[in-house]
Design a protein that fits this description.
Blueprint: E1 8-12, H1 18-26, E2 31-37, H2 42-58, E3 63-65, H3 70-78, E4 81-87, H4 98-105, E5 108-112, H5 135-147, E6 150-152, H6 158-167, E7 173-177, H7 191-199, E8 203-206, H8 221-235, E9 240-242, H9 252-260, H10 292-302, H11 306-324
Parallel strand pairs: 1-2, 2-4, 3-4, 4-5, 5-6, 7-8, 8-9
Helix pairs in contact: 8-10, 10-11
Amino acid sequence: MHSDLIVIDGLQYSNWDREIFQQLQSGGVTMVHATIVYHEQIRETLLRIAQWNRLFEDNADLIMPIKSAADIHLAKQRGKVGIMFGAQNCSLIEDDIGMIEIMRELNLMIMQLTYNNQSLLACGCYEEVDSGVTRFGKQAIAEMNRVGMIIDMSHSGEKSTLEAIEISSRPIVISHANPTSFYPAKRNKSNLVLRQLSQSGGLLGFSLYPFHLKNGPDCTLQDFCQMIANTADLMGIDHIGIGTDLCQNQPVSILDWMRNGRWSKQKDFGEGNKNNAGWPLPLPWFRDSRDFPNLTRGLQEIGFDDAEVAKIMGLNWLRFFENSLSARS
């Protein structure tokens, strides 16, 4: 069954090279939302896009850019892996709302309003006080809605996330997180947020990052899939997908950049700590993208029928993109 599916990963930030593209293809992945920037600003973002253009040229037999939802179908037909650009922070627009349209024209499809900290747009999940969506944030949300750029609140605080859901005229995503009822990580989301997300037409991508999972790298495939089943009861089968948060082959220096950017002179350990400062150990049943068939099998074994498995593994993401990426006049 797995080979027939449209498989969409709602987020990865791997150290992209030909080997990883081959693993994605071997795992039957149709499309991956690839983080291209965190705290990078405008010029740095343009350089990342230029780097990706070279990757597309050098690996044209394996990957292709996703510029519309129709391209996802095309990637499946051609047996290639589609790459959708996304940003895990709003640093790339600096303080210029006009950059939202420019970045969308450069095929950046998804942007988080925050990455753990307070930003110019909203508040991150690591701040002690969540001040909610800012004045600039409200304008940015309206502009993202207009140009067809998807709002992602994966690293945002609860108040900011609930406000973004309410303010946005289009459904939003939480591309890579899990319910706090499964594991109470700061990055995971409450049942209140998940209900509001589903009621507004939004989508949750389940994270396989061990810091987001009960028992960390010892979380079993059965427990992970039971979490999905429980969340399907809460949110409905049409509002859930996969967002692995796979950060494959990245050096620890990248983890430090993600956690600290340019904002801190003192080292912040994020979801780790001084004694566990590096990347977590991988899950034995999901070491890299070649293990995507394990997810399909686990969902079947936990009791989802074929149509439900197809939705979770990619069709829900596909429908969301079909309804979210077009610009409004």
